[in-house]
Amino acid sequence: MQNPFLTQNLKYGDSGSLVYQLQDTLHMLGEQYIVVQEEFTEEIFGPSTEENVANFQRWNDLQVSGIVDDLTAELIWSQYEQMELLKNIGRIVNQDGN
What we know:
Helix content is 54%, strand content 0%. By secondary structure, it is an all-alpha fold.
């Protein structure tokens, strides 16, 4: 699957389904770092989303801007794909009884 976040730099004030997908993805990855729970259903890149992006950047030693630039987008997507792969491996192992 192609990284949807590379189509544009997402930032404060943006809105729409891509922002919702970002919020949802950050929420799923949020077990690794602090996530502010507000806004996740609003499809608006507001203060909570900006803080979540900044926390993700800080946690991953990126330049903290609160903007989803290409480097941030790549890392968010890479971690998401790794998480999904591990979930799928877990399902396979559970199905095999191992």
